[in-house]
SIS domain-containing protein
Amino acid sequence: MNLLAVPGVVGVDVTPATLGSALERVDGLASAVLDTSPLRAGDTLVIISLSGRNALPVEMARTARTRGVKVVGVTSVAYAAQTTSRHNSGTFLKDHCDIVLDSKIAVGDAELTLDTIPAPFAPASTVVTTALMQAVLATTAAALADRGIEPPLLRSGNVDGGHEWNSRVMTEYGDRIFYRH
Amino acid sequence: MNLLAVPGVVGVDVTPATLGSALERVDGLASAVLDTSPLRAGDTLVIISLSGRNALPVEMARTARTRGVKVVGVTSVAYAAQTTSRHNSGTFLKDHCDIVLDSKIAVGDAELTLDTIPAPFAPASTVVTTALMQAVLATTAAALADRGIEPPLLRSGNVDGGHEWNSRVMTEYGDRIFYRH
């Protein structure tokens, strides 16, 4: 699995912090990133967006599918239902996926309330989304193994033989692991 | 809570992907970042490192404490016990904290095994670390409210009045929120 980086959107250290949200509303950004990516027909693209309401995830999903790419959306159907689309089609990420993994996070992403605090707080979306993604990778590994294919998993560099293990995977799958560029 | 960014280390989109791990072993990097940060005595610094074995988290914790900063380390004591330190002091992040939040992740960060897959797989550290951090923030908000202080929490921009709410927090705490630089 490779990261398809959208500059200014995927980094946690982007400044100003509000730039990422602003870029999510820019039409054409998704297509520019796809045009210059190594993604090809037959690949699977995982798109993560809590509401899926913005131009970036909607355009990314629609454009990728026209190129023969399978789209998995990790998004909240309930969240989308409580907001309006910001894409000119009026649709959400959930509407353009081969598979939707529904995080079921409620609008506002705030799980707790307390009498002494004037608004709900405590977001859960990162924990739930990460758990979903790890579950997908683990079950995919098991499914490949069932078919007699050794899943190309990387190991921690802190365990004995970890670096040698990873070097073998990097060599064998080097043409599909884009960690240098 | 602000991000103290270490260039090349905190971003998920750093290339090559191996650069982050290499930078964690560079002596002097932590001090250079602290020297140029707005961190001051009385602040709390949260340092996240699974093993805490590398120069960056160890030096960051030690240097911050000499400046009167409280250090919270989110790390695995069990992981540290199974590795050797890469810092010239021979110590780990856990040895230089005012509070250790122990993620208890086992060495290798791989929770599952399967007869048909030749190595353990399925890391849990991101889920556990994120849940710990959200629990800290939620309990801190409640503790502040108990003292009669309204916790300066931001809200989702997708809920009614969210933007106005956030503008008020940004104005009131503007001198301690570093989201532009």
Summary: Residues 19-150 of chain B form a domain with the Rossmann fold fold (CATH 3.40.50.10490). Chain B has a mean pLDDT of 94.
